[in-house]
């Protein structure tokens, strides 16, 4: 009799412990509703989503070790995980992101990336997940707009929605994300201006906005972002002048403004700055190229091609500490190409289609040059 009572007691204790140390039924139900809206025909990544405990051995799901609430969902269609290696293929998934995912109120990171076929919109309710730090939805076919209330996610450090079909404007509330470090909106159909208060993103280190239809001018407020190291606004419809203060930013190392509608002159500050990768090609920039290069000028890439620059090739380029790739082609430059470094390692393609440049590596100059 005592043995039977002890056995029953043990089973009850084990059941109680198991219930405490497993995900709550509400989180499990939300995950299953999320799964029901998606179709993944090749890899079977959802085959492990069985049993009552979604904190244990559910592919791509992790839980908080103290609360046993679902904290992370990490589903990548391009991965080195064995499930992908065995199938010898990348992932493909269709369906949509169900709003049921917003019932996972302790969610800290949500990655549903590179599945190529997921459509629909970003659920607006995602902006009500107070603990969300990472939102990575790159490489799908999401449409609609970035939710207007995105600024509510005060803990967000990564927002990556690149390579989708998003439209509309960059929400003004996005500038309230004071902890945001990585912003990637590349290759969508986003239009309208960059919010004027973008400089409020004081923690931002990378802002990648290329391949959209963004218009208006470059906000001067961007120059206030001390940590900004990588700014890519290429392949948009941005007009106006390049703010000179971009050349005074402490850690800005990559500046891509190519394929826009920019006009005016190059700020001399950019050519003596910390920027080492500078692409201003395919704009309407003009005037002389500032002859201000010096020992602080270190460029792995400097591309000024397809503009309206005139005058000579700056002689001070010889004083730069390093010039890797230089492209001055398709402008209106004229005169003798200076001799010596870095010009002695550059090819003719760096200088072709100008008005009257001469000297190595182009044709020899006439005596009057």
Automatic annotation (TrEMBL):
Q: Where is the Leucine-rich repeat-containing N-terminal plant-type domain?
A: 25-64
Identify the SUPFAM superfamilies for this entry: L domain-like
Q: Which residues form the signal peptide?
A: 1-22
PROSITE patterns in UniProt: PROKAR_LIPOPROTEIN (PS51257)
Q: Which InterPro entries match?
A: DNA_repair-toleration (IPR053211), Leu-rich_rpt (IPR001611), LRR_dom_sf (IPR032675), LRR_N_plant-typ (IPR013210)
The UniProt entry, under Gene3D superfamilies, shows:
Ribonuclease Inhibitor
Q: Which UniProt keywords apply?
A: Leucine-rich repeat, Repeat, Signal
Q: Name one Pfam family in it.
A: LRRNT_2
Q: Is Ribonucleoprotein given among the entry's keywords?
A: no
List the protein's name: Leucine-rich repeat-containing N-terminal plant-type domain-containing protein
Originating organism: Hibiscus sabdariffa (roselle)
């Amino acid at each position: 009799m005592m043995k039977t009572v002890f056995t029953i007691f043990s089973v009850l204790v084990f059941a109680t412990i198991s219930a405490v140390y497993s995900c709550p039924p509400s989180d499990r139900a939300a995950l299953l509703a999320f799964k029901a809206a998606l179709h993944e025909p090749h890899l079977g990544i959802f085959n492990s989503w069985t049993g009552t405990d979604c904190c244990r051995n559910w592919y791509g799901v992790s839980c908080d070790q103290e609360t046993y609430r679902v904290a992370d969902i990490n589903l990548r269609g391009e991965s080195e995980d064995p499930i992908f290696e065995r199938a010898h293929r990348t992932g493909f998934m269709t369906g949509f992101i169900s709003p049921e995912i917003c019932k996972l109120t302790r969610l800290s990171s949500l990655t549903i990336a590179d599945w190529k076929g997921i459509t629909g919109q970003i659920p607006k309710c995602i902006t009500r997940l107070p603990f969300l730090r990472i939102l990575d939805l790159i490489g799908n076919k999401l449409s609609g707009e970035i939710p207007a209330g995105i600024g509510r996610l005060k803990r967000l450090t990564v927002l990556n929605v690149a390579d989708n079909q998003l439209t509309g404007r960059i929400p003004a509330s996005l500038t309230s994300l004071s902890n945001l470090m990585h912003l990637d909106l590349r290759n969508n159909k986003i239009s309208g201006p960059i919010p004027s208060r973008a400089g409020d993103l004081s923690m931002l280190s990378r802002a990648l906005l290329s391949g959209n239809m963004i218009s208006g001018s470059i906000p001067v407020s961007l120059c206030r972002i001390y940590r900004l190291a990588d700014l890519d606004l290429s392949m948009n419809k941005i007009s106006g002048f390049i703010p000179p203060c971009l050349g005074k930013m402490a850690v800005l190392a990559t500046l891509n403004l190519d394929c826009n509608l920019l006009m005016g002159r190059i700020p001399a500050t950019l050519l003596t700055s910390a920027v080492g990768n500078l692409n201003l090609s395919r704009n309407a920039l003009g005037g002389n190229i500032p002859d201000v290069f010096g020992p602080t000028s270190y460029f792995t890439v400097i591309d000024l091609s397809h503009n309206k620059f005139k005058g000579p090739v700056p002689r001070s380029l010889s004083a730069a500490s390093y010039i890797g790739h230089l492209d001055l082609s398709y402008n209106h430059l004229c005169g003798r190409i200076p001799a010596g470094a870095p010009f002695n390692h550059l090819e003719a393609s760096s200088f072709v289609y100008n008005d009257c440049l001469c000297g190595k590596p182009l044709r020899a100059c006439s005596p009057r040059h």
